[in-house]
């Protein structure tokens, strides 16, 4: 299903992966024998049906080939689950019910936010979500996100839908209005996650960011996703993708 002209949602039959997947993890697909390895976040999974859902944005040749596949077609490889799952899966349901989380999803970051918000919402946690996009056309999964949170806030750069402006502006307004959050999750473009972390730092609110945008090989072999977290060298693919946003050296990671 095409969610907009350049973004495709796909349900992939992968029973073993679906059985093992947890919120925060990712997989790697290769369309054909000559295709490159493309890391994609697990947007959703159904253990009973044996399927995982992925969301892909057409950027280059490989993503275009993947999005051109039809129902019944096969990919050369679907590998996963990879990476460390979200830390909150180690909390009990009673612990989660006492907490309030807010997710900030920028662009395609909506896809990885969905399974995490869904997991928490199903266990009684209070969940708020801010979605940011360039314009109304680029917004994806609005209804699905609304179903897994208590409050959904939408921002667009041009004001064509929801609040006009940046997600950091909406976040600051919510915090200064007296909303208290136990943890903030930011997933999206690197520059967005950097400024979300800078916004929350003065308030001392724990902030987790997903460093999946810088992954290449996805298995710790290539070193392309090397980053500095709290002065230590980490690999986004095997040590993450989630890290403390206040400790990540975003400038070096973006370089």
Architecture overview:
26% of the residues lie in helices and 31% in strands. By secondary structure, it is an alpha/beta fold. The strands form four sheets. Strands 11-10-9-8-12-13-16 form a seven-stranded mixed β-sheet, sandwiched between helices. Strands 1-2-6-5 form a four-stranded antiparallel β-sheet. Helix 6 (167-176) runs parallel beside helix 7 (190-200). The longest helix has 13 residues, at 110-122.
Q: pLDDT under 50 segments (min length 5)?
A: none
Strand order of the largest sheet: 11-10-9-8-12-13-16
Largest sheet: 7 strands, mixed
Order of helices and strands: EEHEEEEHEHEHEHEEHEHEEEHEH
Name the average pLDDT: 93
Question: Oligomeric form of this entry?
Answer: single chain
Helix content: 25-40%
**Overall radius of gyration:** 17 Å
How much beta, percentage-wise?
Answer: 25-35%
CA-based shape? globular
From the N-terminal CA to the C-terminal CA, the straight-line distance is: 34 Å
Tally of contiguous helical segments: 9
Structural class: alpha/beta
Kindly state the number of beta strands.
16
């Amino acid at each position: 299903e095409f969610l907009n002209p350049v973004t495709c949602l796909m349900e992939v039959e992968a029973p073993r992966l679906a059985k093992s997947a947890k919120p925060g993890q990712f997989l790697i697909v290769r369309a054909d024998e000559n295709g490159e390895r493309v890391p994609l976040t697990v947007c959703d999974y159904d253990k009973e049906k044996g399927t995982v859902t992925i969301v892909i944005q057409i950027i280059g040749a490989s993503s275009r080939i993947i999005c051109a596949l039809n129902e019944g077609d096969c990919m050369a490889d679907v590998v996963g689950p990879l990476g460390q799952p979200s830390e909150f899966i180690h909390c009990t349901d009673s612990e989660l019910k006492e907490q309030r989380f807010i997710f900030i999803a920028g662009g395609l970051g909506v896809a990885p936010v969905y399974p995490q918000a869904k997991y928490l919402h199903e266990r009684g946690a209070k969940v708020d979500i801010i979605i940011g996009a360039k314009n109304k056309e680029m917004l994806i999964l609005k209804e699905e996100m609304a179903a897994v949170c208590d409050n959904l806030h939408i921002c667009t750069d041009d004001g064509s839908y929801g609040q006009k402006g940046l997600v950091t502006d909406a976040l600051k307004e919510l915090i200064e209005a007296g909303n208290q959050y136990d943890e903030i999750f930011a997933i999206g473009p690197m520059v967005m996650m950097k400024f979300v972390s800078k916004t929350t730092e003065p308030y001392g609110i724990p902030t987790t960011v997903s460093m999946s945008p810088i992954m290449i090989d996805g298995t710790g072999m290539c070193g392309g996703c090397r980053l500095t977290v709290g002065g230590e060298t980490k690999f986004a693919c095997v040590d993450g993708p989630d890290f403390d946003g206040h400790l990540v050296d975003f400038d070096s990671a973006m370089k």
